[in-house]
TrEMBL record:
Top-rank taxon: Eukaryota
Entry protein name: Williams-Beuren syndrome chromosomal region 27 protein-like
UniProt xrefs under Pfam families: Methyltransf_25
Organism: Branchiostoma belcheri (Amphioxus)
Domain Methyltransferase: start-end pairs: 69-160
Length: 218
């Protein structure tokens, strides 16, 4: 368990970079300064989210260890490291922060690195490219909102899975997250994907519970 002092520092950074009203430019500046310390601050004890998201997707992909997976908002590569430790090697990383991607490169678990901004804009990726997506820690203030979901669905093959993890409280407090579930439901009503599971779990990040969703692309 991290020392209480370290826990307080980690929590302050997590709450700082996701504070209500923070702007996307401020978020990227924050990660620029934090990138080298991120893994030290958010070790497995403090941040169980990436492991949970990776394990959840891995269970669905089963024996298909050659499945092509895109880790969106990959950051320093924590989801990719977990997937790699589970035997997956066909992994790409996407993030808006070059500094975070530079750290992710040092992990030697991803094949391709895509510096892309997640939003309503079209991603520079062909339709139906991936068997699965991991998405951990991106839905929060100043980061990513539900307007990116259409693009995530577009780049996943029919039958593929999108696994999303976030801090559960943000569903009620963050402007970017309050509309997440309604948008997920609308996409299901439109026949674009189907909910497979929704699980609330402890130990997501700095003491907060998480929620992990899986949807199957139709
Ligand atoms: C909390 S970190 C999560 C990183 C990694 N998934 C993890 O769980 O450790 C959030 C990441 O989202 C990225 N990010 C924030 N806004 C973004 C956007 N609009 N498009 C793409 N990436 C974004 C940041 O650069 C950062 O690397």
């Amino acid at each position: 368990m991290a020392a209480p002092q370290n826990h307080d520092v980690s929590k302050e950074k997590v709450l700082g970079v996701t504070r209500p009203g923070i702007k996307p430019d401020e978020v990227l500046d924050f990660y620029k300064k934090w990138s080298k310390e991120y893994d030290k601050d958010l070790d497995g004890e403090e941040y169980g989210g990436p492991r949970k998201v990776a394990q959840t997707l891995a269970a669905l992909l089963g024996n298909r260890r050659d499945a092509r997976v895109l880790d969106v908002a990959a950051g320093t590569g924590l989801c990719g490291q977990e997937l790699s430790s589970l035997g997956f090697s066909n992994l790409d990383a996407l993030d808006a922060s070059q500094d975070m991607l530079d750290v992710a490169k040092t992990k030697n678990v991803y094949k391709n690195f895509l510096k892309e901004f997640l939003g309503p804009n079209r991603l520079n990726i062909e339709d139906d490219t991936y068997d699965g997506i991991t998405a951990c820690g991106l839905f929060c203030d100043g980061h990513v909102g539900p307007d990116c979901l259409d693009q995530l669905i577009r780049v996943v093959k029919p039958g593929g899975f999108i696994c999303i993890g976030l801090r559960e409280t943000l569903l009620h407090t963050s402007e970017n997250c309050k509309t997440l579930e309604p948008r997920m439901e609308a996409l299901q009503s439109d026949g674009l994907w189907q909910r497979v599971s929704r699980e609330v779990f402890p130990g997501y990040c700095v003491g907060f519970d998480g929620v992990v969703y899986v949807h199957k692309v139709l």
